[in-house]
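LOG
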Amino acid sequence: MPYVMVDIEADGPIPGDYSMVCFGAVIVEPDLNRTFYGKLRPISDQFVPQALAVSGFSREECEAFDDPKSVMEQFRDWLKANSKGRLLFVSDNNGFDWQFVNWYFHHFLGSNPFGFSSTNLGSLYKGMEKDTFVSFKHLRRTKHTHHPVDDARGNAEALLEMKAMGLKISLR
């Protein structure tokens, strides 16, 4: 059951009306060297300038990105090539990241290889610490840059640290 840490950047609050700009994924394992990065052309004319600015890309740059269906096919194929068994989607803000990845998989490919659930990294840590006000972010080693591979890697580092602290997870 491989854990796949995912981070996305979007140009608005919801999929369909707005677009996923780019996303990154990291297979959670000690060396964290199996990564995926995709940049997707907008699917809508709508965008929130402040949301898009977080990604570091202009609207004009985004319009030259790859076809979303093709990127999702590449991601599906990468997941298949880099994992065995049931995939576990994990992210820092799974309420946001999951909705975009799930919507894009179902909209463009008809199914989501992650199934119907996801895990929130922050909630795992809060449970470990028995404190709903604590943050896991000090466990990251990679700087949070809003490049989704960097951010997914930092979050994967935090999950590995949580495992070292006693969280019972299998990374096979």
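LOG (cont.) second protein
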Amino acid sequence: MFVTPLIAAPMAGGTTTPELALAAHGAGAFAFAAGGYKTAEQLATHLAPLRAAGHDFGVNLFVPRAEPLSATASAALAMYRSELRATAERYGADVPELLLTEDDPRVQDSWEEKLELLLADPVPLVSFTFGLAPAPLVTKLHKAGSQVVASVTSVAEALAAVETGVDALMVQHANAGGHTAAFLPAPAQPPASLSELILAVRSAVNLPLIGAGGIASSADLKAVLAAGAVAGAIGTALIRTDESGARPVHKDALGDPSYTQTAMTRAFTGKAARALVNDFVREHSATAPRAYPEVHFLTVPLRAAAATAHDPRALNLWAGSGWRQAREGSASHVIVDFLKGL
């Protein structure tokens, strides 16, 4: 499936640009396009330069929530909206009213439309996160000529993914920056490292595994490969690069020594994600409801205003556990440094 042991992970929200994917591929990595938060039309535009280049690449999609918010979650969401007003006022931002039905395109992340695009005009590989693509969809993608990868965070999720007929698994440890791919309850004693998680999944399934989460150096990549992965995926290591579309304030924060830790938080989107600990994380993590993507849309104007003010205190500064090793410069240089250390 992969001719390289290094994957440039898909980072939604604008961080993974076509330029970043092309630079990563040119330096020897397998590159993904990020389909999350895009309409089908936006995704088609995003993919056009990658298609034109003629290289193999992957596209990652978010699996939408299948059920409506519970009454409890809806009530918690309303309370959280009220809580956010004081923070939003500091930035001159609004906290929008949210009356999203389950079939709202924002809740579904344009799921059906993007699948129609990828079935009509296939890409080499499609990966899914936040849940599993149903087995009939996996079959359709195979018939269209695409290989399929499922993102998992535990042995239980890996076993469930195998039943859908996917070709490989993206095995994500909690050290990963940004959103967790988890869709089942976490085990009581999760593996302490990505290598341990790879070993556990390797003993349970017989599919190619890609390791993700906390890979910040060639040594980290070598450890994941030694544990049985065919490749390792990097994300945070590419955020500060020239080709990254991450906000400048996000890039700067990753290099700011005043940040000393990361934490998992639902404060920004309603789904657990690892970020640098800033004021917003400290003030709102305890009360943020499990309501994705509703919380995401609730905080979008606030985060945009903070970015405009170049104020990192209220931004989602996604960062994996190895964020201190992320550096500026060309993405190709980052990729080459990872590969030459193998």
